[in-house]
Each structure stands twice: as C-alpha cells, then as structure tokens.
C-alpha cells in the first residue's frame, strides 16, 4: 500500500477523525491541522467515501512551495532526502536547521507546543553556527521567495 496525504479544508473535521477512520479499519498514520486538515494514511478509497473528495493529494514539490503553503511534513521529508546524501558538513547543518524548523511547525500544528519550542531552539542553534556566507541563502529562501 502507498502512503499518501489527503488535504481537506480546515474546519471539515478535527483530530478526532483519526480515531473515527481507524474504527473503520483505515490505516491512518496521523492527522495534522494547520492551513489544511492533513490525513496521512495508506491509500484507501474509503477515506474519500467517508469525507468526500480532498482538495488535493500530496505530491512532490519544492521545499519552498511546500513550506510556504504550510505543508510542513512534506517540506521536512523533501529536505531529509537531500540531507541524507549531502557530503558537505556545512550544507548538512543548514539542511538540518531547515528540517528542524519544518518539524517544529509540524509539532506546533499538532498542539505540541513544548516539543515545537525545543525543535525551534535546536534549529536556531544550528542557524547561529552557520558560516556567514550561508546566511544570505537562508534569508533569500525564507524572506525573498515567499
């Protein structure tokens, strides 16, 4: 079975949908609410039978598009793929900071504010350790390309 993220409009349901779908024997990994209601599950037509058609189903996109559209789980996953193969330690630290920032937002959207704060603190510590020549890349990515 293929893992997918179904995106529904915010307000269509709350996090209790996770247990409701599980009671229907649907393999739901997680539910996150931010800009959208994200139902992270193994592909199953019964989800759309119960909730209707999603706005869209997650797919590959750039980190910037994912992050700025509040699709933090996917932005985290996208960067993790790059981080795993990156050899340059400075670039790895840069990517790790962005991964932690995305992960912090995932936790925040799930209401886990203390965990979110810890991850954000760790991301900021990595950012503070970045060489000065990488800082403009950080600012361009987050401030000039929304």
UniProtKB/TrEMBL annotation:
InterPro entries noted in UniProt: DUF309, TTHA0068_sf
* Name assigned to this protein: DUF309 domain-containing protein
Name one matching Pfam family.
DUF309
Its domain of life reads: Archaea
Source organism per entry reads Sulfurisphaera javensis
């Amino acid at each position: 079975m293929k893992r997918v993220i179904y995106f529904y409009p915010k307000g269509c349901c709350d996090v209790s949908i996770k247990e409701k779908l599980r009671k229907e024997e649907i393999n739901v990994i997680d539910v996150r609410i931010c800009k959208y209601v994200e139902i992270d599950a193994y592909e199953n037509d019964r989800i759309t039978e119960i909730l209707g058609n999603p706005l869209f189903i997650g797919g590959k996109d750039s980190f910037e598009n994912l992050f700025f559209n509040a699709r933090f789980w996917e932005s985290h996953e996208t960067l993790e793929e790059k981080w795993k193969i990156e050899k340059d330690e400075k670039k790895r630290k840069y990517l790790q900071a962005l991964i932690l920032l995305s992960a912090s937002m995932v936790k925040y959207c799930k209401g886990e504010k203390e965990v979110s704060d810890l991850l954000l603190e760790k991301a900021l510590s990595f950012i503070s350790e970045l060489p000065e020549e990488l800082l403009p890349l950080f600012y361009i990515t987050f401030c000039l390309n929304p």
